[in-house]
Amino acid sequence: MLGFCGTFTGVIDGKGRLSIPSKIRPGDPESSDKKGIPSGERMILTEGLDGCLSLYPENEWAVVEKRLEALSFTQKNFRFFNRRMHQNSTPVNIDKSGRILIPENLRSLAGIEKDVLLIGVNKTIEIWDPTRFKEYNDNFGQSYEEVAERLFRDDPGQ
To answer: What is the assigned CATH class of domain 4-151?
Structure first.
């Protein structure tokens, strides 16, 4: 499966709906390898990391849930993360116009008012306030090349 990729702009309408760009929305219903999100698809919208929202296809959300199930409820960090993630998660359906409804509490968490950036990040789609995303990049403290060098330093494929 080709993961989600690319950066797109969008606008939250007066009812809190966001249109998912057609380049990542349409799926090929005849293919077992989905290349996008078909109309009617149920996804999970949740608080992401670093100040964004994350939109997961159900099968990818199941992977996250399975990973969480392997952790111990006796761990304080697990309990905090598990509560926070689930209290700020909601199922959403892609309507026939390719839109999802983003609840007010999630828009507030991500600082989203009207304009958004949608970023395909392989298995998820991140939804950002454009100003917050620029601040995140500007304040990261390392260049793209420096991060790549650190991440792939011990990569046997190199």
So the answer is: alpha beta
